[in-house]
Design goal:
Blueprint (H helix, E strand, L loop, with lengths): L4 H24 L6 H12 L6 H8 L3 H13 L3 E6 L2 E9 L1 H24 L2 H20 L11
Helix pairs in contact: 2-5, 3-4
Length: 154
């Protein structure tokens, strides 16, 4: 690693922000949603087409097993449908159900006051200045992802 301590400080700040934000959001989500379940519902709600478990696992950087667990909980709650892919009988297609969209919308309503309070603590012009840097970092990290490990415990 480069000897300049600013890199360690940058990554430590990003990690701390991620942890604090994830905890704050999780506490505000209506049951039975977890943060990972909310993320899947939100992604499906914003997508024009259904997804498969592998695509979702890759997007969220978790193992296929971890994603399957999240999807099964969402299916049990009646939020998604897991069906056989007509193009490949071994594959599965994940579709958002109306109850899943309603759960996602309820979760958005529950976290919006916290996010609004957060935006009042950081002036918009400062947020706009940091977004390009964070986007550049995310794009580099996404492009240089290490191969997944099937033995990880996410």
């Amino acid at each position: 690693m480069h000897s300049d301590p600013v890199w360690a400080q940058l990554f430590a700040e990003i990690a701390a922000i991620q942890t604090l934000l994830a905890n704050a959001l999780q506490r505000r989500l209506p049951p039975p949603l977890s943060l990972s379940g909310f993320g899947v519902l939100d992604r499906l709600a914003r997508s024009a087409a259904p997804s498969n478990p592998s695509q979702l696992a890759s997007a969220f950087q978790v193992t296929k097993g971890a994603m399957t667990n999240t999807l099964r909980r969402l299916e049990t709650a009646g939020f998604v449908r897991i069906s056989i892919d007509p193009a490949d009988a071994r594959g599965r297609i994940i579709s958002l159900l109306p109850a899943g969209l309603a759960a996602r919308d309820a979760a958005m309503a529950a976290i919006t006051p916290h996010m609004t309070a957060l935006t009042s603590a950081l002036p918009r012009h400062q947020a706009r200045m940091v977004v390009p840097l964070l986007e550049q970092l995310r794009l580099w990290l996404d492009k240089n992802r290490p191969p997944p490990h099937s033995d990880r415990h996410d």
